[in-house]
Amino acid sequence: MRLIARAPDAGSFAPFGAFLQPPPGVGDRSVFSEWLEPVPGLSPSCYLNRVPASTLPFTVERVERHPNAAQLFLPVGVSRYLVTVMPPDEAGAPDPAGALAVVVPGTVGVVYHPGVWHAGIVALDAESSFAVLMWRGGAEDDVFAPIAPLEVHGGPGHG
């Protein structure tokens, strides 16, 4: 399958999560606490991950989900990155036919709703780091599933 990456659009991304915008002005604050509500039996987790540089087109062959909690990514020194999400099919498995790919600028974060199927974060242009916040400690914190190769291409201005 082939998918064209788009620019971030809050409305089309809403079923999967949200884009986390920086504060509008100096001294302002953007608050995302509603995404990190405590989950009974789980503990907060905050870490930095480092991902290699990739280019478009990029092939996704495995997706993951976190059924117990939202997962929040804040870019740290990132130029731009690729986010690929998809809905579940009727059986709850990932449905690549409904996939959405977005090229996100490094000034914007992203958060996934609990249970959303998504590819691992993909740094474009240069090796990059992301701060990751979520609740962990459940039996199925991370669920992985293989998918048929999904080739993500850059759309206009996203090559």
Describe this protein's structure.
The protein is mainly β and 159 residues long. It has one domain (2-22, 42-154): Ureidoglycolate hydrolase (Jelly Rolls). The protein has one helix at residues 10-13, and strands at 2-5, 17-20, 43-51, 53-54, 58-65, 71-76, 80-86, 100-105, 109-112, 117-118, 122-124, 128-136, 143-154. Strands 2-9-6-12-3 form a five-stranded antiparallel β-sheet, with no helix packed on it. Strands 4, 7, 8, 10 and 11 form a five-stranded mixed β-sheet that branches. The model has no long low-confidence stretch (mean pLDDT 95).
Search tags:
mainly beta, Jelly Rolls, 48% strand, 159 residues, globular, five-stranded antiparallel β-sheet, single chain
Oligomer: single chain
Per DSSP E runs of 2 or more residues, the count of β-strands stands at 13
What is the mean predicted local confidence, pLDDT? 95
Q: Which band does the percent of strand residues land in?
A: over 45%
Please, what is the CATH homologous superfamily?
Ureidoglycolate hydrolase
Total of helices = 1
Q: Helix and strand string, N-terminal first?
A: EHEEEEEEEEEEEE
Could you say which structural class the secondary elements and strand pairing correspond to? mainly beta
What is the third-level CATH name, the topology?
A: Jelly Rolls
Report the CATH architecture.
Answer: Sandwich
Overall structural domain count: 1
